[in-house]
From TrEMBL:
<feature type="domain" description="YagK/YfjJ C-terminal">
    <location>
        <begin position="46"/>
        <end position="220"/>
    </location>
</feature>
<protein>
    <recommendedName>
        <fullName>YagK/YfjJ C-terminal domain-containing protein</fullName>
    </recommendedName>
</protein>
<dbReference type="Pfam" id="PF11726">
    <property type="entry name" value="YagK_YfjJ_C"/>
</dbReference>
<dbReference type="InterPro" id="IPR057271">
    <property type="entry name" value="YagK_YfjJ_C"/>
</dbReference>
Length: 222
């Protein structure tokens, strides 16, 4: 067992898999506790919903702008998530006004705070939703209300900025969306191993900072 040199409470994981699921071994070592929490968060979502819409997103801070003091702490990601969850709840309330049988969706998430070469923090996210409630993210430049616009509005709220100033700060990586079934039908691929492999990146040990009231990693509860 190898302890993290900057945080001896954390254990380093060097293997190419975790509990039977492959990880991005070239990005390792990983934090063992983070891999466990990532896996548990996905499992909880699949326990509640038979099908998931899972997607990756990145949140960046603007350069050359005076930002509120809370943006230098984990308060900013908490505010983003609170705002995003409120928008999902509002969407589902509106959906049930049109159709009383419309599906609900809890927001489950995993986030990692990393510090880049210029000492500027940024966040990597995994969002997990009920696929029967949300099937797609929508288009980046669409004027319609969609998942991307909700994230942009939530990040603007967290930063205390106008939404038009943060649109370039919410980044959706290539091939970001995974639709995962609890029970995989014959002839269809199991997307869970792909999802875990992709999001194991959030659990890597490097580029995370500890101390000064920061956490490098967080997940939804329950």
């Amino acid at each position: 067992m190898i302890r993290h040199p900057d945080n001896p409470n954390l254990r380093l994981h060097y293997d190419n898999s975790f509990e039977g699921l492959s990880v991005m071994v070239d990005k390792g070592p990983f934090i063992e506790q983070y891999l466990s929490r990532l896996k548990r968060t996905i499992e909880l979502a699949l326990d509640e919903y038979p099908r998931l819409l899972a997607f990756r997103a990145d949140l960046r801070l603007p350069a050359g702008v005076d930002l509120p003091v809370h943006t230098d702490s984990n308060v900013v990601i908490s505010r983003f998530l609170d705002s995003f969850k409120a928008k999902i709840k509002h969407n589902r309330l509106r959906a049930r006004e049109c159709n009383k049988y419309a599906h609900d969706s809890k927001v489950r998430y995993v986030w990692a705070r990393e510090v880049g070469q210029r000492e500027r923090p940024h966040y990597h996210l995994l969002i997990l939703l009920n696929l029967d409630a949300f099937y797609t993210l929508g288009k980046l430049d669409s004027t319609a209300d969609n998942m991307i616009s909700r994230m942009q509005e939530a990040w603007a709220s967290a930063l205390g900025m106008r939404v038009e100033l943060v649109k370039g700060l919410v980044h959706i990586p290539a091939n970001a969306v995974y639709r995962v079934d609890r029970k995989v039908k014959a002839g269809k691929p199991d997307r869970l191993p792909e999802l875990f492999y992709r999001t194991s990146y959030l659990c890597k040990a490097v580029t995370k900072s500890y101390g000064r009231g920061h956490w490098g990693f967080g997940t939804s509860r329950g």
